[in-house]
Design goal:
The complex is a heterodimer of chains A (268) and B (301). With 268 residues, chain A is mainly β. Chain A is built from four helices and 17 strands. The chains are: A mainly beta (268), B alpha+beta (301). Chains A and B meet through β12 and α4 of A and β8 and β10 of B.
Chain lengths: 268, 301
């Protein structure tokens, strides 16, 4: 194991863009080289060693300790290895992530896991807006991987999702899985208004009835679906609370305002 | 070599390279899982006329299956990838998809893949849903009792088909008893199937025929009603012969199964009416795999 630990020194009022600090990139660098990596912070870039106290030894895991400060783009475009953020994950966490594993012990800001392609992102706290969503201006959001939020998520979780799985153990805000193309969004807590707004395909599994439903959903009654057992078996190690919650579900399909073959499965 | 009164002929079984796959079929109850598996492995005794050789490998407890329901592992063998592909899509489509409450999963890893749900999905007529779970793709097809869940594809292995041995006994009853005993023991061996009815074939065949239309015909040298001819291979005391054919995922699996079966037969011994054990081959020129009976029984080979 082992690995470098980056502890943010007190100082910068602006968020520090730590997108350059990736386990797979740092594995090949000496400590002095790492200390020289320029990190954008506000309207300037500062050497990594000036912003962070770097300790530890080279290894698989990279640990970021933001202390009281703010991070930006932690684990962005990461492809391999393990990144741990001990504290608040900041905005655009794991944006365009393509592999490896990220664990955040605190909360994540908006856009966590946006346009993610592969890998696993676990947020022990809550996530901001559009967790597992997309990048501004891009037609499609997440295209693969797994996002687990142990706390709650803001509005538009899984927005424009194309593939992959997002599991929110707490509550999710309004417009969950809005404009979803495909993929799976699971919400174990309360779910806000209008989930699946203009969804084309894909699945939303909601443990509780949504605060409000769109009219473009057709109700097909209560069913026990086999694929849920596979989903549970897969996610059980990450979320024991999932077990048995969707053994029987009320199946609605929509949004008929879009293609209409998406599904909203509400635990019965 | 004589074991417990059973003469082991110094010969070998000749086997062929085949393409193989394993499927795991589950259902709400054991009864329906077995029903689906029995149906889909029906009429699959020999590639000569069935297209493939298939059988139930073993039943699976709920804890062993992907969806936690009772299941059955089946193995299918064919001479070519294209034929195996055709056979699994037809058999799963007609026999598993149609069985109440069933689901069908891949039972083999490997880079070489055969399409399963990838072709069956069109039955969903636009209502089919693909789901990627734990890195694997599945298809959900709406059917009249809910949804048919099916793996997108399954792995293909380079298997071995045609491992065999012949039980020479004093009477049909003695041959049957010995064969049943062997089959029971061999069914516990993993990675193999015994494709013939009850694991046993009574109409062993030789290559060729005096009739041009036939590529195989009765193995007259081992027919007890013809034992008076000079071409017969049967000693006078033999009244019946039964053959056990084995298909396996690897050469070692066939060897293990053959040893298990032959030991069971020898256990019955001469006192049980067993006269000898021999094997079918084509002079060693056709099949690349040779299983020497004596070497296998001695733990070598």
């Amino acid at each position: 194991m082992g690995g470098f630990v980056f502890t943010l020194r007190a100082g910068p009022a602006q968020a520090v863009d730590v997108g350059a600090l990736l386990p797979e990139r740092l594995a090949a660098l000496a400590l002095e080289e790492i200390a020289r990596i320029p990190l954008p912070c506000g309207n300037r870039a500062l050497p990594c060693g000036e912003l962070f106290a770097i300790t530890g030894t080279p290894g698989e895991t990279l640990t970021l300790r933001p202390e009281g400060g703010r991070l930006l783009r932690a684990g962005a475009a990461m492809t391999a290895g393990r990144l741990v953020v001990e504290g608040q994950g900041g905005e655009e966490l794991a944006r365009s992530m393509a592999g490896g594993e990220i664990l955040v012990t605190g909360d994540a800001g908006d856009g966590a896991g946006a346009a993610m392609k592969a890998g696993v992102l676990v947020i022990e706290g809550s996530a901001g807006e559009a967790a597992g969503g997309g990048l501004a201006g891009e037609p499609m959001g997440m295209t693969g991987g797994l996002v687990v939020v142990h706390g709650s998520a803001g509005p538009r979780a899984g927005e424009r999702m194309r593939r992959g799985t997002v599991l929110i153990e707490g509550a999710a805000g309004d417009f969950a899985a809005a404009r979803m193309f495909a993929g799976t969004l699971i919400v174990l807590g309360a779910i806000g208004r209008y989930p699946g707004f203009q969804m084309r395909r894909g699945s939303i599994l909601a443990a509780h009835p949504p605060a409000a439903l769109l009219p473009g959903f057709a109700d097909h009654g209560t069913h026990s679906l086999g694929f849920v057992r596979l989903l549970e078996a897969w996610l059980r190690p990450l979320s024991p609370h999932l077990a048995g919650r969707f053994a029987a579900t009320r199946r609605l399909t929509g949004d008929s305002a879009a293609r209409g073959t998406g599904e909203l499965l509400i635990a019965a | 070599m004589i074991v417990n009164g059973v003469a082991i002929e110094d010969t070998f079984a000749e086997a062929f390279a085949m393409k193989a796959t394993r499927l795991v079929i589950t259902a709400d109850t054991r009864h329906w899982a077995v029903t689906a598996a029995t149906s889909m492995t029906g009429f699959a005794t020999s590639v000569i006329a069935c297209g493939c050789e298939a059988g139930i490998e073993r039943e699976l407890a709920p804890a062993e299956t992907p969806d936690g329901r009772p299941g059955v592992a089946v193995l299918l063998f064919a001479m070519a990838t294209k034929e195996l592909q055709k056979q699994i899509q037809n058999r799963v489509g007609q026999c598993v998809l149609t069985t109440a409450g069933s689901a069908c999963f891949s039972g083999l890893e490997g880079a070489e893949r055969l399409k399963l749900g990838a072709v069956l999905r069109y039955f969903g007529d636009g209502h089919q849903i693909a789901k990627r779970i734990a890195g694997r793709r599945y298809w959900r097809l709406p059917v009249m009792d809910g949804e048919f869940l099916c793996a997108d594809d399954t792995g293909m292995a380079r298997g071995v088909g045609g491992g065999n041995f012949l039980i020479l006994a004093q009477s049909p009853a003695a041959a049957r008893a010995a064969a049943e005993r062997a089959v029971e023991a061999m069914r516990a061996v993993p990675n193999v199937i015994l494709p013939f009815p009850g694991g046993v074939v009574r109409s062993g065949s030789k290559v060729g025929s005096r009739y041009r239309a036939l590529i195989a015909s009765t193995n007259d040298a081992y027919c007890p009603t013809l034992k008076g001819y000079a071409t017969s291979r049967l000693p006078p005391e033999v009244g019946a012969v039964l053959e056990i054919v084995i298909d396996g995922l690897a050469e070692t699996d066939i060897r293990t199964a053959m040893r298990t079966g032959m030991e069971a037969v020898c256990g019955l011994g001469g006192a049980g009416g067993v006269v000898g054990i021999t094997a079918g081959n084509y002079g060693g020129k056709l099949g690349p795999f040779h299983f020497h009976l004596r070497a296998i029984l001695q733990g070598a080979g």
